[in-house]
Write a structure and sequence with these properties.
The chain has 341 residues and is of the alpha+beta class. The protein has three helices and twelve strands; from the N terminus they run ααββββββββββββα. Strand 8 and strand 9 form a beta hairpin. Helix 1 packs antiparallel against helix 2 and helix 2 packs antiparallel against helix 3.
Length: 341
């Protein structure tokens, strides 16, 4: 197009120059000028026709480009419409997802917290019951430490007492009877509490007799036997004693084993030994200390379990808070991406 314009301008310049020179041309005739002018006019028309054809082609191309632009615009509008629908759908889905996730998270949080609180409450309740049981056991052991004093001393006041073989010796006169274990009617001692007891008998032989046969009996078993012989006539006195572990309710008494016996003085005593390995005060204290230590250990273990459960509850709550923050961040990021699209 630009070349055509340059050619047309050059042609007009030639025509103007020719016309200006024609009057002074010595050889150009009138017909020569007309022929040359006609020739130039034809060439101009041809150039103009060519230019018009180019303009028509260009116009067709422009129209085609406009048509393509319209089609592209239609596609863009359609794409925008689809994107808007997708955006609305994504917003709806995101809102549903946020709502469902929030509901699930809240439900899970409530369930977990409820379970943890219930577990913690049960542990505290169990710990309280354990402490109460420990206190009760300690009180029972303290009560057991109050061991009553068991002691008696009985004697025969008659100047001479004649006993036959197999006869139980009865001491009717009671000086001391702590614990009321001795029965002066039967001469038998009944243990009210279990323990280690020390029994002692003192007797004096009548001068006309030389032999004495006695035994301390525990149930159907002889704990200690005493055989004494003396012919000096001085009525010597002898003491027999024995220690024995006696269960609660068992009976101990003195029994004659020979054919006959004359006693001028006889005394029967018994005392519960404080150093008994099965029922002494030290034994009770040792058992009490051992049980207290076991109870303290059990209580400490229970408290440790409570601390561990509390730490787990705190950690679970922290994890739930972190999960909520992460979920909020993801939701905000999803909304930003949706708005950008």
């Amino acid at each position: 197009m630009h070349l055509q314009k340059k050619g047309l301008i050059a042609l007009l310049q030639i025509i103007v120059a020719t016309c200006a020179r024609e009057p002074s041309s010595p050889i150009c005739s009138r017909y020569d000028y007309e022929e040359r002018l006609l020739e130039r006019v034809l060439r101009n028309e041809l150039a103009l026709e060519t230019t018009l054809n180019e303009i028509v082609k260009t116009n067709a191309k422009v129209l085609d480009a406009l048509t393509q632009l319209e089609d592209a615009k239609t596609k863009v509008d359609s794409t925008l419409t689809v994107m808007e629908k997708k955006q609305i759908e994504m917003k709806s889905q995101l809102a549903d997802f946020i709502s469902n996730a929030s509901y699930i998270m809240n439900s899970t949080l409530v369930a977990n917290v409820g379970a943890l609180v219930e577990a913690s409450s049960q542990i505290k309740e169990n710990a309280s019951v354990t402490v109460q049981q420990l206190v009760k056991e300690v009180n029972i052991l303290k009560d057991q430490l109050n061991v009553p004093t068991i002691y008696f001393r009985a004697r025969i006041t008659a100047q001479i007492t004649v006993l036959s073989s197999g006869q139980d010796v009865v001491f009717p006169t009671v000086d001391v009877n702590e614990g009321q274990g001795y029965n002066p009617s039967t001469g038998k001692f009944t243990a009210s509490i279990p323990g280690m007891y020390l029994f002692s008998v003192q007797y004096c032989v009548y001068t006309s007799l030389n032999y004495v046969y006695l035994e301390i009996v525990h149930g159907d078993k002889a704990l200690q036997r005493s055989t004494h012989y003396d012919n000096t006539g001085s009525a010597p006195c002898v003491t027999m004693q024995v220690s024995a572990a006696v269960a609660m309710g068992d009976m101990v008494w003195l029994k004659k084993t020979s054919m006959w016996l004359l006693l001028s003085l006889i005394v029967f005593t018994c005392a519960r030994e404080p150093s008994s390995p099965i029922c002494s005060r030290y034994d009770y204290e040792e058992r009490l200390l051992e049980r207290v230590l076991r109870n303290e250990l059990a209580l400490e273990n229970t408290l440790n379990e409570i601390r561990k459960m509390n730490a787990k509850v705190v950690d679970a709550l922290k994890q739930i808070e972190d999960a909520k923050d992460s979920f909020k961040y993801v939701a905000m990021l999803g909304l930003r991406l949706t708005n950008q699209h």
